[in-house]
Amino acid sequence: MLMFALSGAANVSAATKFADVASYQPDDVVYFKNLATDQVAGVVVKLTEGGGYINPKANKQIASAKAAGMKVSLYHFARYNGAASARSEANQFAQAAKNAGLGTDTVMVADVEDNGLKTPYADTVTFQKQLASWGYHNQVTYSMASWFWAKKLPLNYPIWVANYSANMPQVDNAAAWQYTSNYAGKSVDMSYDFTGIFTQKNSSVTQAPTAKTVTIQYKPNYGIALWQGLGTSKYATGRYLKTGTSWRVLGEAVINQQRWYNLGGDQWIQATYTSKPYGQYGLIQPKTVTTKTSGQLVNGLVQQKVIKTLASGTRWQVTGVAAWAGAVWYNLGGNQWISSKAVL
């Protein structure tokens, strides 16, 4: 059976966002600590470009990001045309990574988007093979959605898709999605990490993620609505998933007795119209919870923003429960959530 994924995700970390930086961005620790405060758990530093350029800020950006507790990955902006230049650029990238003190477990990204590339598919394969010969096997291919639609690039490694004009990557099985080039007005690219490659420090691109799936079971030749958000804040995206198609599930929520499955980002479908209408995560909704420590109340599950701190020992009515990012969350009304770790 053909299985689809809205975002190519299977296991999302608690802080799913990661930034990418070049010489245009600052290199001080304060800058990266401010990003980390926004639940940005990783950063991809531009290290090299073409056959000779090395980012002069790279070493300090790497050190500052590590000091801020972020996972550090690297990217090379490809200019290669032909096998010889592809191998040469790979050698430069690998040597620069070693000179920067990063081991072969580092995630290494081929940024392939230059319109001057004549044979990007074949040359990227050559580049990645050469990089692997240095021992760098944790590789990712980055480009715009349109390049993946046009099949200009290989899919032998996980893909990181840039698509700013949509509310999802729009490329099946994307490992990550770059959704803006001006995050929070800070002139920095920001992405969602759907697999943990860029944000989980013990994650490797060679690890095959496990995934829960559901099949749409509705009327023949019809489909069910895909929703953005949960609860009172949700709205229909205008997209419908056809009966008989199967989808990966990243999370589950029960709001006011209605069960929902997350298909990536903040995209949700009603479980009642699927092959698993009663859930897959064993969620149990209590009537009330009591905070055992001062607990942070967040707005939203996917893009969490702390809105207040609840005092220890206070009791709250529960209107929903969710399995998200490897944890259980309780809904306290609207789109307000608290982690099960903070309550009794």
Automatic annotation (TrEMBL):
An annotated Gene Ontology molecular function: lysozyme activity
Keyword line: Glycosidase, Hydrolase
InterPro entries assigned to the protein according to its UniProt record, in alphabetical order: GH (IPR017853), Glyco_hydro_25 (IPR002053), Glyco_hydro_fam25_subgr (IPR018077)
GO BP terms: carbohydrate catabolic process; cell wall macromolecule catabolic process; peptidoglycan catabolic process
Keyword Transferase: no
Recorded family membership: Belongs to the glycosyl hydrolase 25 family.
Descriptive protein name: Lyzozyme M1 (1,4-beta-N-acetylmuramidase)
Organism: Lacticaseibacillus saniviri JCM 17471 = DSM 24301
